[in-house]
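Notes, p. 3: input format for complexes.
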Amino acid sequence: MPHILIVEDEAAIADTLVFALEADGNATTWLSLGGPALELLRQQPVDLVILDVGLPDTSGFELCKALRRFSEVPVLFLTARNAEIDRVVGLEIGADDYVVKPFSPREVAARVRAILKRTAPRDPAPASVAGPFQVDGERVRIHYHGQPLGLTRHEFRLLQALLAQPERVFSREQLLDALGVAADAGYERNIDSHIKSLRAKLRQVAPAAEPIQTHRGLGYSYAPDNA
Ligand code: CA
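Output follows (227 residues plus calcium ion):
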C-alpha cells in the first residue's frame, strides 16, 4: 500500500485529501508544519509527498529544496495563486506535478495514482539487504540505516559492487569494471574521488561508521563490521 505524506496547514483541506487518498487504497500521514515533515522524511521514506506551498513555518518550495538534498521522492504541490504556479513550473525545484486550489480531492487522488504508476519500477524486485544497506537495483537507490542516499550513478554502482562481496578487496581497475568504464591511469584517480564523495554521503547518515575501507596500494573493500 503506497504511503502518502500530506503537508498542509488547513485541516479541512487535509481531511478531504486523507479521505480521498485512503478510499483510493493509500495509507496517509498528515502534518501541518514543514519542519516536522522534513524530520519524518529523514527518518522514514514515503512513496509520495503532497506539499502545500503556503505553510506557517516555511514555504513548500524551501521544504522541497531541503528534501531534494537527500530524497528523490515524488512531490505534488498544492498551490493557491497563479504566482505560485509560475514558480512551481519555472523553478527547478524537482516537483512532479501540482494542483491549484480549490481542487477536487478525487482529481488529486488521480494525479497521485498517475505519479506512482510513472515512478514505480516496471518489474518490482525486492531490495537486497547487506547489513544496514538496502540495495534497490530497479530504482537505482540505496538506503543506509533506513535513509535514502542521494547517489550519482557511478557512486551507486561502486557501492553496489562493494556491498555484493563484503570483505573482498577490489582494485581500482576492478571497480572501474563495475562502472563499465575503460581502465586507464586517469580514471583510476576518478575512483578515489567517487569513493571520497560516497564516504561523505555515508558519513552524513552515520558519522562514526566507516563501511568502506582503504587498503593502501590495493584498493577498497566493504567492511560490514564497521557499517
Ligand atoms: Ca496553506
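Helices lie at 11-23, 34-43, 60-68, 82-90, 105-119, 153-164, 172-179, 185-205.
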